[in-house]
Amino acid sequence: MQTVTVLGATGSIGCNTLDVINRHPDKYRIFAITGNNQLKLLMEQANKCSPRYVVIADPLHYSAALELAKQYQVEAEILCGQQALEDVSSAPEVDSVMAAIVGAAGLLPTMAAVKAGKRVLLANKEALVMSGALFIDAANKSGAQILPIDSEHNAIFQCLPHNFTYGDLGNSGIEKILLTGSGGPFRERALDTFGSITVDEASTHPNWSMGRKITIDSATMMNKGLEFIEVCWLFGVKSKDIDVVIHPQSIIHSMVQYVDGSVIAQMGNPDMRTPIAYGLAHPQRIEAGVKPLNFKEIVDFSFKTPCYERYPNLKLAIAACEAGQCATTSLNAANEVAVEHFLHGNISFCDIAKVNEATLNAMSMVEMNSIQQLLEQDSLARVKANELIRGKFQC
Ligand SMILES: NC(=O)C1=CN([C@@H]2O[C@H](COP(=O)(O)OP(=O)(O)OC[C@H]3O[C@@H](n4cnc5c(N)ncnc54)[C@H](OP(=O)(O)O)[C@@H]3O)[C@@H](O)[C@H]2O)C=CC1
Ligand SMILES: CC(=O)[C@@H](O)[C@H](O)COP(=O)(O)O
Ligand SMILES: [Mn+2]
Questions:
Q1: Model pTM score
Q2: Helix (H, G, I), strand (E, B) or coil at 187
Q3: Which of 167, 227, 315, 371 is the most buried if burial means most Cβ atoms within 10 Å?
């Protein structure tokens, strides 16, 4: 029996994780679930999966949460705040932590799990993008096992040889990592109409049902940029080792190309329960409720190269990856701010990349040696991005 904490249980990944876990009551027990604003959903989940703890991230919601807990007959202890998130990630009773809080808010609870040597199911890509070497070093020190949940990284993990050594592509005969992406909803849209893209249009992903921030990131391809950086840290590779390939159908979830000409791909219907189940059960496989891929139903199966004019955020992210930690931390922070402003109608779709670029250009680049320093850089970049937005960006 594996004991699991689900950080971000009320989100898209969190709900899918509970769905997979519910299918296997003999294998998994929930220790804690956490949420932020969706208190009712969190209490419904608690009523169903009977965790020992329910954590509300924002202490301002605590009394409302206590009331709802009574209403939903939740027997778990209700906790709140940052320390509680870290405590349920690092408690000795916990075997695995699903890191599925969105954005930089997930860094400290995820790091707590890493430092405590847990099996960390990593969905929260922003945590790795903003902390890079510190994250990987902490895992090496504690013995934490990092299992990628992001579909592409999970695919790459599945396509690598079992004896793959971190950073050593040559020894495994690997030529390239082929990181696939759908290209988002605006893959074919005329560039001269980008100025009128609405929030609703950008919030409609062609293949995946996901949280609102990652959905916007997919539309700008910042998601692929963050994933590019994520590949570098998860597998110890360099920018030159990765090619981004647009695959509009999201059936192949990424590939590894070998020197003998073989290309190994991982495929499946676009349903996050596959990588979640893989992470939970590794090295075994468990049923995940996912519709099997039916090749007779596949009409198109195509590939293309991304164009930076259409996806300036992808170019920025690759350049930041090459520039180093300070740049990736700053870019991630600026992007979180810009996406939030876009969702609130304060800036246009094209402004997201402009804010990101202007923020990066305005930040001094320093070496990042501690989590404290990362958090300070993250705050500085947020202040700068907000300042730039107040100065009114126009598309
Ligand atoms: N959705 C997907 O299919 C995929 C997601 N990912 C990554 O997984 C992560 C989660 O994505 P997704 O599930 O889509 O996101 P959602 O927006 O659906 O869910 C985010 C979760 O984080 C919680 N949360 C939000 N802000 C805070 C905060 N300040 N402190 C603590 N908790 C907070 C939310 O709580 P509440 O809802 O209660 O407010 C919710 O539980 C992201 O990093 C994303 O990039 C990666 C690959 C695929
Ligand atoms: C499901 C998942 O892993 C997402 O990151 C997904 O890949 C987003 O789609 P894009 O390929 O359009 O960014
Ligand atoms: Mn992904």
A1: 0.97
A2: coil
A3: 227
